[in-house]
Amino acid sequence: MKSLEQLTRPNIWSLAPYSSARNEYAGREARVFLDANENPYNAPYNRYPDPLQLSLKDALSKVKGVPAENIFLGNGSDEPIDLVYRCFCRPQIDNVVAIEPTYGMYKVCADINDVEYRPVILDEHFQITAEKLLAATDDKTKLIWICSPNNPTGNHIVREEIEKVIQQFEGLVIVDEAYSDFSSQKTFRSEILNHPNLIVLNTMSKAWGCAAIRLGMAFASEEIIAIFNKVKYPYNVNLLTQQQALEALKDPFEVDKWVKILLEERSRMVDAFRLLPICEEVYPTDANFFLARMTDAPKIYNYLVDQGIIVRNRHRVQLCQNCLRITIGTKTENGELIAALRQFQ
Ligand SMILES: *Cc1c(COP(=O)(O)O)cnc(C)c1O
Fold first, then answer.
1. What is the pTM of this model?
2. 3 state DSSP class of 76
């Protein structure tokens, strides 16, 4: 791996971050807060929230098995996705490599930050080799994006290939594990202490059922986390989100129950799809959704919209011609989808 200084944009490396009122007294006991121009009335919403979300990180640390110092929290995973560009990629100079097809935000954020995006197409099993990804890199490649389980394909990327990329690439590797709670594969979270160039992303938006509160996580070396903290908005995670996330973390067994039900429903749905005459193939999935190749995806998509049922049309995505991406819902919702599809002609 190159040094973090070589990988970081020079302006970010030398950045003197904003020092918030609450940062400066940090850690010591205080009773009277006359430092931040807050209104003393309307507690608790009158006060700026903890800029480093320390109690939330403590709770997450226990659930995720990662030290609090190695956690960054953001406004959804979308925030750390954008931050890696802003911290490491010089506009119009550096580039990034990603598997294709994958989650659309990696490319959108590359475009916003004026950074070249190099997609590397998956094979017919939606897999990739380390060799192919590394062949797309050059000395200006700062990041490699690997989403596993991948969106929209649903499958996990072979672990040995991801490991090879992490070991052999000189820049940073981001493994987006938004769907890892649904996967039987081992998470890469536990690897961050062994690999200083690895960043793992998680989110509260999927298995945890908290998409509305916007809380995403990045796990990485303390040095990378320090760079993120320097660049982020000082109060990027608001009080309501921190409180609600703490509430959700009190009962991780609830999440386990949801995951178990959703996986049972997934297998029932996959079986039902395989029996539909209008379904040509259902692809292997490790997530709370699956990709199905249909006879005519756009037509079936529009038919479902007319019935008030929304799935994701991936027809225009590379390798996904005539594919619909189906999220697993409640037993009733899934039943409605299957019933509607059986009526399609
Ligand atoms: C849904 C999803 C996310 C989550 O994004 P949030 O901003 O945390 O809601 C991240 N990565 C992938 C691949 C996803 O599909």
1. 0.97
2. coil
Give φ, ψ of 162 to 5 degrees: -60, -45
Rounded distance from Cα 68 to ligand 1 centre (Å): 21
150: helix, strand or coil: coil
Distance 46 CA to ligand 1 centre (A): 31
Kindly report the number of other CB atoms within 10 A of residue 258's CB atom: 15
Query: What burial class does residue 325 get, using C-beta atoms within 10 Å of its C-beta: 0-12 exposed, 13-18 middle, 19+ buried?
Result: buried
pLDDT 10s digits, 133-145: 999 999 999 999 9
Q: Point out the ligand 1 atom lying closest to the alpha carbon of residue 75.
A: 7
**DSSP annotation string for 155-215:** PPPPHHHHHHHHHH-SSEEEEE-TTGGG-SSPPSGGGTTT-TTEEEEEESSSTTS-GGG--
Cis peptide before 101 (omega within 30 of 0): yes
> Would the CB of 203 count as within 6 Å of ligand 1?
yes
pLDDT band at 26 (very low <50, low <70, confident <90, very high): low
Q: Write down the pLDDT at residue 120.
A: 98
